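Standup notes, protein team

Yesterday: finished cleaning the Pseudoalteromonas holothuriae set.
Today: ParB/Sulfiredoxin domain-containing protein structure.
Blockers: none.

Input for ParB/Sulfiredoxin domain-containing protein:
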Amino acid sequence: MALKHKGRMKDSLPETKLPDGSIEKLMPSGNKVRFYPFEIKAEDLPEIASQSKFNPRRYEDLKLPAVEDIFPSIKESKRNAYPIYIVGSLDNFKVIVGLRRFFAVKNVPGAVLVGYRVNHLESSDECYLAKWSDKYVAPSFVDIGLTIKKERDFSELSARQLAELFDVSKDTANMGQRVAKLPKRMFELFPAYQYVTFRFVQEVSGLELPEDKLNNVIDITYEKFLSDIEDYSKEVESPQYAKLSKSIQNFILKQIREPIAKPENPWQDFVKVKNIKTKVDAKGRLSITLDEHVEPALIEKVFDLLNEGLR
């Protein structure tokens, strides 16, 4: 999968490591916040992670193909190499940084999730950590769109404001807004959101289909690709996922596109010479083909007539 790696970002916040293993960070709000180390067994992790609204990646939508780059190392070492950050108690917390690591550890029996915990964070500090510290693999425009769909506050923002909020281009934010208007079920057909293309969303959203028609197409697509979709929960990596995703997109587009009627050729019966053919394209343009057996003198007469008639 062509995951968009940005390089694991070093936290630029000033911090102090303390003897008990905790770290103290000077946050954007000006507060000094102390984070305490923790470990949780994979078996004790909740099924669904509560997450920061400022992190556009959606935990509940993650599948194994979306963590193919980190899953092998976590499976081998039985723990995540880079710590996650959470807010709250160990019994009731919200993930600020590390949703993909949380998901990968959760799917490795016997693994341990390691990270740092704090009881409370100011909204500005939470936003900073979620935006700038969880970008090893950039969330896709589909992630952003589904976050806009879920968070009512974000749905009222302009594309420019969303671009600033999520640190993406205005075009990406605009595509996210398109995603927010489409059924989430459609995107769940894919192994990971990174496989969904701009072109696909542009065309589907541009058609402005009735909701029932689009849902019917989604149902048909699900049935057709059911065995492949079921494999997402078992296979971490597959060289066929990109090809499969393209097939899913093309199948959906074929179902929703209006059929183009083949134009009639009124000249077909008019031309009765076997060495001359006529063809009318979708835009109604006429093509006349004269093969190699047509006498040059006849071709010259045809062009003389055309030149005379088009003056």
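Follow-up from PR in the comments: The first helix runs from residue 71 to 77.
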